[in-house]
Specification:
single chain, 297 residues, Rossmann fold, 2 domains, seven-stranded mixed β-sheet, 9 strands, 36% helix
Length: 297
């Protein structure tokens, strides 16, 4: 995993894009952003490290042909350098004070669209429907996992997702079968995305500093139907039940859904625990369950 150092480009980006030097912003708005206090109820931890900002912008690699949606722009550490790329940028912000200030800048940034609302309830199907979306964001720690599950519903709308979240969550997403961190989140995201943990982000890169290390993660959507799942709802139900009691074997945790004959038909040992099972094996079991005559779809 690469270590990041402040280089010339990063120092330039710090001077030009992070507070207090915000291009195009009035003195009043700059003063507001400088004095805006992070709000715990919104999970606000504002990124400020110039080397990490530089690395993220270079990784996202936006251009005038790109439609980017940013979750939680905050004070603009990523927003402003993204705007310089010429991309069409949609920002989703829940904090009304920040929304008001970003809306006041839309005349200066014609490629900026501000959406006030909760990202957990946001309908990405209605956002730039003629374009696939590049999602980027510093996901609030308190809702990062629910947000990831929300993104699953719209996986085919995204070209790629680049997100910051707790290192522990990123490791769970990327965990292989058989590891202690492999679980429901690993399986559900693996069906829809190829994941890659790109680099770690230390607590001091944020204000206020969180108590845990963060990570920057790439999620690359897979083509629809890659794993051959017949019924996505049945698959989700089976995976959730399998991992609801991790210490139990599959035969016990899935009792009531599948019997010994079902496991035999799939050539899967019911004495295995769920963390031992690869994604394709979960697909086999879910498809078997879907095809049973008494399964409710």
């Amino acid at each position: 995993m690469p270590r990041l150092h402040v280089c010339g480009d990063a120092a330039y980006r710090l001077a030009r894009f992070t507070l207090p030097a915000i291009p195009g912003c009035s003195h009043t708005n700059q003063e507001f952003l400088l004095t805006h206090r992070p709000r715990k109820r919104f999970g606000q931890n504002f990124l400020h490290d110039p080397a990490i900002i530089d690395a993220i912008i270079d990784t996202v690699d936006a251009s005038p042909a790109t439609t980017v949606v940013e979750i939680g722009p905050g004070l603009g550490a990523l927003t402003l350098p993204l705007l310089e790329t010429g991309c069409d940028l949609h920002i989703i912000e829940l904090d009304r004070d920040l929304v008001m200030r970003w809306e006041s800048q839309q005349e200066k940034f014609p490629h900026l669209t501000v959406h006030q609302g909760d990202a957990l309830k946001f309908d990405f199907d209605h956002l730039a429907p003629d374009h696939t979306l590049h999602l980027v964001g510093n996901l609030p720690y308190n809702i990062s996992t629910p947000l990831l599950f929300h993104f699953l519903r719209f996986s085919q709308r995204f070209e790629v997702l680049h997100v910051m979240l707790q290192k522990e969550v990123a490791e769970r997403i990327c965990a292989p079968p058989g590891s202690k961190t492999y679980g429901r989140l690993s399986v559900m995201l693996a069906v829809h995305f190829a994941s890659e943990l790109l680099f770690e982000i230390p607590p001091h890169a944020f204000t206020p500093a969180p108590k845990v290390t963060s990570a920057f993660l790439r999620l690359q959507p897979r083509q629809a139907g890659t794993h051959g799942i017949i019924d996505a709802n049945v698959f989700a139900t089976l995976v959730r039940q399998a991992f609801s009691q991790r210490r139990k074997t599959l035969g016990k945790s899935l009792r009531g859904l599948l019997d010994r004959t079902d496991f035999e038909m799939c050539d899967i040992d019911p004495c295995l625990r769920p963390e031992a099972l690869p994604v394709d094996a979960f697909v086999q079991l879910a498809n078997r369950l879907t095809q049973k005559p008494d399964t409710c779809h």
